[in-house]
Amino acid sequence: MGILIYTLLLLSFTSCSAITGGDSKTISRRVIDVEGGPEDVIWVVQLSDLHFSVHHPERALDFKRLVGPALSIIRPSLVLLTGDLTDGKSEDLLTMKQNEEEWIEYQKVMEDVTTRSGLDKSIFYDLRGNHDNFGVPVLGGSLDFFSKYSISGQLGRRGSVNSVTLQTGEEKHLFVGFDSTMSIGLRGPTNLFGHPTDQLLTDIDPELSQWKNSQPTKPEIKISFGHFPLSFSAASNSGKSLKDIFIKHSISAYLCGHLHTRFGKNLKRHHQSGHQNSFFQSYIHQISSENTENCSKEGKTVEEFWEWEMGDWRKSKALRILAVDRGYVSFLDIDLKSEAKKTIILPTFPLDSRFMSTKSDLLKYKCNAIKPSYYEAVRALVFSVSTIVSVVARIYDSRSGNLDLVMESYMQKNEHNFSRGDLYIAPWNYKAFEDLSPDRYWLQIEANDIMGRSSLTELRPFSINGYSKKLSWTWREFFVMGCQWDALYYPMLWLSLLCIFSILLLPKALLIFTKKHSPNKEKGRVSNLAMVLTELDKLWVVWLSMMIYTFYLISFPWFSGQVFTDGGERGYMTYKGWVVNLVKERKNMEFIGSPDIMVVVLPHIIFVVLPAILVVGALAAERWIYRVRFLLLSGKKEDDYSWKTKRSLSVNRLYKGEMFCFGKRWIRKILLVVCLAICWKHFQVYIYLGELPSFIFE
C-alpha cells in the first residue's frame, strides 16, 4: 500500500488537478469541410502538458522552435492542446497559483506557432488542465487567465464542451473536447482528479450523437479529448462517469494527458461494456466473454473504446499525430527532445494489432462489414521537409522465431490536384497474410528523401483478421492507468483505520481471552505474545492519546486556512474534503476536492500515524522485555520477581544470542532511528502540502 501512496504523491507533485466545473454556459459546435486530398483521410495533432513556467523558460523556447516547423510539415486539420498549458508553481514548488506572466508567454508563443506553421488559428483547440486552474476561485474571474489568454478564450469558446466535425465528402469525423476541471480551483496538491458533473455529462451526451439523425446508416468516427485519464476522473454526484458516456456512444478513442511519461510510455487502456470491476483493470485490454461470431445487426453493435494518454511536452517533448483512414484510427507519438524530425511516417493500414478495437475490428472482417477494396493496399502518410524520392513497405514473418522478409514493395504517391499531405500506397494480396496470430506479421516502412536521408518506422505487428495483440503494463503504468483511484479512496482509508484500531484494541482482548479459554499447553506461548503486544495498552496516557487522535481525524477538521493563494476565502479540510465559505458568492461549499484529498489523508495515516503507533508499541515491548531479562541476569530467585517474569522465559530465549546485541539495547536504538524517519516523513508530507507556516499555523 505504501508504494501506491508514493505513486499518488509523485503524481500530485508533477501534475495535480482542480474541482469540477462542468456547468457549461454555451456549447461550441463547428463543422469544417476538409478540402483536398488524400480522400477519406484526415489527421490531427495532439500536444499536452506544456507547463510553460517563468522558472523554466526553455519549455516555451523549445515549443516555439520545434512545434511551429513541425506543424508546417504535418499540416493537420486540428491541433488539440489537452491541458496544463502553464505550470502555476513557484520555483520551490511550495506555492501553487496562476502566474499572469506565464499566460502572456503562452499567448505570445501560440501566436508565433500559428504564424510559422501557416495554420488557421481557429483549428487550435486548447483546454484547461489542473495547473491552469490553481487558485482560481471563480471561472471568468480576475484570476481566470485561461479565459483571457488561451486560444479558446480569445475565440469565444466559453463553454465546458466544444465539438468540431471534420467532413471529407460523405465521411464525418467528430471531435468532442471538454473541461472537467473544478469550478473552484483549489490549490495543489489536493486537486489531482477531474470532476465531471452531471451537467457536463448531460452536455457531452448529445454532442456525441449530433449526426445520428442526419446519417443513421453511415458510421461516423467519434473521438473525445480532455485532460484527465479516466483512472483519475471521479464519478458525478449521481454516480455516472465519462466511461458510461463513451461506452454508450462507442467512440473510437479518448485522448488525454495529465500523467506524464515518467510513469511509463505505455499509458493506454481499452474499455469495453460488460465489465463491472470498478476498482481495477488488470490488463490493458478488456476481453468480452460475449460471442464474437454474431454477425446480426445487434451482434455487430460493439460498445468499446480506447483511451490513449500521450505523455507531456514539459520533459518528453512529445507530439502525437492521429489519423483516420476510411474509418481506421491510428496514431504516432513523436519525441522531439533531440531535434525536429525531417521525415515522419505514419502507417494508416494495416492497423497496429496492439491498438486495434478488440471486438469491432474482428467483427468487421468476419462479417464482411468493410469493402474488400479497403484491404487491397498498404497505406501510409509521409510528411517531410524535403522531396521524397522513394517509399518502401516491408513485411516480415516471425513464425520461425526470426523476422523473415516476405514482402518488399515500393509505394506509390496518391496524386491529387490539391493535396493536404502525401499518402503512399502499395497494392498487396492481403489474403496471403490472414492468420490467427495477432503478431505473426510485422510491418516496417522506409522513406528516402532527395537529400539522401533515410527514415524508418518502428516494426509494428498487424492482423488482417482483426485479432488484437495483448499488451502488459509495468507496475507504475498499472497503478496510474489500471486503478480507479476515486473508487479506491474510501476502501483504502477504512482499511488503514481498521489496522490502527486493531493494533490498539485487539492485543488487550487477546490477553483477556487467553487467560480464560486457552489450553495449558498453548496458554504460555499465546500469553507471552499478548503480554508483549499489550505493553502499549499499559502506557495508558499514550494509548488514550492515540485513540483520541485517531477519532479526531475521523470526526474533526484536520487544519484550516486560506483555500486560495490570493483572496480571503477560508476553509477547513476533513477526510471527506474541503469545506469552503465563498464570501462573494454568499454560499458554502461542502466536501469539495474529494477524492483529491487522498494525497494528504492516506500518506498521513499510512506513513505517519500507523508507523508511529507500531514504533511506540515496539518501544514499550522492548522496555518490558529488557526489564525482564535484566531481572533474570541479576541472579534473583523466582520468588523475587513476579509471575510476569516467569512467563517471559520463552521470550528471554529470543535474546540470548549475541546477534541481537540486546545487552547494548541496539533494538531500542534502531527503533529511535525509525522514530526520526517517521518525523522526517511527517515533515516532508506537510512541506509538500505547500507553505507550511502560513497555511497550517494561520
Q: Which structural traits does this protein have?
A:
five-stranded mixed sheet, seven-stranded mixed sheet, 18 helices, alpha+beta, 25 strands
Q: Would you give an account of this structure?
A:
The protein has 698 residues and is α+β, with helices and mostly antiparallel strands. Helix content is 33%, strand content 21%. The protein is built from 18 helices and 25 strands. The strands form five sheets. It has a seven-stranded mixed β-sheet, with helices on one face. Strands 4-3-2-11-12 form a five-stranded mixed β-sheet, covered by helices on one side. Strands 15, 16, 19, 20 and 21 form a five-stranded antiparallel β-sheet that branches. Helix 14 runs antiparallel to helix 17. The longest helix is centred in the C-terminal third of the chain and has 36 residues, at 598-633. It starts with a helix and ends with a helix. Mean pLDDT is 82; it is low at 12-24, 641-662 and 689-698.
Briefly say what this structure is.
This protein has 698 residues and is of the alpha+beta class.
Write the layout of secondary structure elements.
Elements: H1 2-14, E1 27-33, E2 41-47, H2 58-74, E3 79-82, H3 100-117, E4 124-127, H4 145-149, H5 151-154, E5 161-168, E6 171-178, H6 198-208, E7 221-225, H7 242-249, E8 253-256, E9 268-272, E10 304-309, E11 318-325, E12 328-335, E13 343-349, H8 360-366, E14 377-384, E15 388-397, E16 404-410, E17 412-413, E18 422-427, E19 441-449, E20 454-456, E21 460-462, H9 475-482, H10 485-517, H11 520-533, H12 535-538, H13 540-555, E22 559-562, E23 570-574, E24 577-582, E25 587-592, H14 598-633, H15 643-647, H16 649-653, H17 666-689, H18 692-696
Parallel strand pairs: 1-5, 2-3, 3-4, 6-7, 7-8, 8-10
Antiparallel strand pairs: 2-11, 5-6, 9-10, 11-12, 13-14, 14-18, 15-16, 15-19, 17-18, 19-20, 19-21, 22-23, 23-24, 24-25
Helix pairs in contact: 1-14, 2-3, 10-11, 10-13, 10-14, 14-17
